[in-house]
Design goal:
The chain is built from 36 helices and no strands. With 507 residues, it is mainly alpha-helical. The longest helix has 25 residues. The chain is elongated, with a radius of gyration of 33 Å. The mean pLDDT is 85.
Length: 507
């Protein structure tokens, strides 16, 4: 065989390898091909190509493995069991930037599925190699490494701590200062994933000066970046008063409120989540957001969206109202109650309705004035219906019942209470009747209206156990009226009158 023929054989071999990895990488982009590739044993065929002498074959093999691992945890596990990770980690330190991006992609694709697979990535020494990659000149390598670190950290506090201990946080903070938007997004996302697990991890992010740099980006025109910025600030704020105060001290209000009108749904959702996490801590933090116009902005937001994205805004109003009478009144004055009543009617997801019920309860539980504002929005019958609906989740039933009771115990607006006399079960009914027994003795107009509306007649029809609290309340109501009026509206009285007519002998 001549030298030319030998070279042709090698050239053909290289072409075949190249064509093979490119075809596999292409096939791996379509879900319908994955099972066939897996059954054909493609993993064991790709592994030796990671060590190929031709760089493009190495990179394409890594890309194909990443796409396969990304598809499901079985394939990711096969990569771990095939002892492929150590080779990728080694290559992260040694190979060119194209291969490094592909290797980081595989590590990310494996780590994303479960804490166990993420731990396998950590155990093969990937963290050190990924952190070193954050210092690369090429922004694409930094981005791929930051993405992989975020996917490892998001699972639990232990994995997040491992990422911190590897020295990732200061470098991620440097990454959010780079000019490339894509790198800023991924770095902010990774910081969010690290901060979310505990106050200690959030404090680590804060200590590197992340808040100031994140705060500078809240009005960036890129929607995907803003999503991650608000997510990171939320994850820091949620853990403690001190951390929430540090976020507020970055002077993000009232600038943040402009983002509640952002065209991107998730930017708006993440802004309201941030406001929820800040307001839940103290009356002072809630007051600061009220003073900046936050309540009205969130109520407008609730009117402009539907579904689960409403949830943080609904809860934020509840947290504000829970702190004090004045803050609850601020929600009422800003027309928060009618908007929450709309949410209660429009939403079909039980967890959203449960949050709405809870927030209405927080607003109405303070004073008769607060309760009247809630009752006037005709939410009491809705809350009762949700509590009594067998299709409602247990959480929704519990929250609807609790909200009802806390509003009823303060409500002295009798026209709003009267419909409940006809539908409420005894455990709710006693709270309704109690309020009538408190108000009627001191209000002659209410006593008259209670008779003409049929309320007194309904009370006489209630079957209460002798000596029970409910019976005591009924007796208190009856004592507000002449005995013959009470008798007149008591069940069976018409028959008694008819009997008397029959027995009556005219003179």
């Amino acid at each position: 065989m001549s030298q030319r023929q030998v070279l042709q054989v090698f050239e053909q071999y290289q072409k075949s390898r190249t064509q093979f990895v490119q075809t596999v990488a292409e096939l791996a982009t379509r879900p319908q091909n994955i099972e066939t590739l897996q059954n054909a044993g493609v993993m064991s065929l790709l592994r030796p190509l990671l060590l190929d002498v031709v760089p493009t074959i190495q990179q394409t093999a890594a890309l194909a493995l990443g796409r396969l691992a990304n598809y499901n945890d079985d394939l990711a596990e096969a990569i771990v069991k095939g002892d492929i990770l150590p080779q990728l980690v080694y290559s992260l330190a040694e190979q060119n930037r194209f291969y490094k991006k592909a290797a980081a992609f595989v590590l990310r694709a494996v780590a994303r599925h479960s804490p166990e697979l993420a731990q396998a990535v950590v155990d093969c020494g990937a963290l050190e190699a990924l952190v070193i990659s954050l210092e690369e000149f090429d922004p694409g390598v930094k981005e791929a490494a930051a993405w992989a670190l975020g996917y490892i950290a998001r699972h639990n506090a232990e994995l997040s701590q491992a990422v911190v201990d590897a020295g990732a946080v200061p470098l991620l903070v440097l990454c959010i200062q780079e000019p490339e938007i894509a790198l800023k997004r991924i770095a902010a996302s990774a910081l969010s994933d690290i901060a979310k697990h505990s106050a200690e991890l959030a404090q680590t992010v804060v200590d590197t000066g992340a808040i100031a740099h994140l705060a500078q980006m809240i009005l960036n025109p890129d929607a995907k970046l803003k999503r991650q910025v608000f997510s990171a600030l939320s994850q820091v704020s949620k853990h403690s008063v001190d951390l929430a105060e540090l976020v507020v001290e970055a002077e993000i209000f009232p600038a943040v409120l402009a983002c509640l009108r952002d065209p991107d749904e998730y930017v708006r959702k993440n802004v309201t989540t941030l406001m929820r996490e800040i307001t839940k801590h103290t009356p002072e933090l809630s007051q600061l957001i009220v003073n900046s116009g936050g309540i009205a902005a969130v109520i407008d937001y609730l009117g402009d969206c539907k579904g689960a994205v409403r949830l943080p805004g609904i809860m934020m109003l509840g947290y504000v109202a829970a702190h004090s009478e004045n803050l609850a009144m601020a929600v009422i004055v800003s027309k928060g109650v009618p908007q929450l009543a709309i949410c209660l009617s429009e939403e079909s997801e039980d967890h959203v309705r449960a949050a709405t019920a809870w927030s209405l309860g927080q607003i109405g539980r303070h004073t008769p004035e607060h309760a009247r504002a809630v009752a006037a929005a005709t939410v009491l019958p809705k809350l009762l219906a949700l509590y009594m609906d067998a299709q409602s989740s247990e959480d929704l039933q519990v929250k609807a019942k609790k909200a009802l009771k806390s509003i009823l115990q303060k409500c002295t607006h009798l026209p709003a209470l009267e419909p409940l006399l006809y539908d409420a079960p005894s455990n709710i009914l006693k709270h309704v009747v109690c309020q009538f027994s408190k108000v009627l003795p001191h209000d002659s107009k209410a006593r008259r209206l209670f008779v003409t509306s049929g309320g007194l007649k309904k009370v006489q029809e209630i079957k209460a156990d002798t000596g029970s609290t409910l019976q005591e309340y009924i007796n208190s109501i009856n004592n507000c009226y002449p005995e013959e009026i009470v008798r007149y509206y008591s069940p069976g009285y018409s028959e008694t009158l008819l009997e008397r007519i029959e027995k009556y002998q005219p003179v």
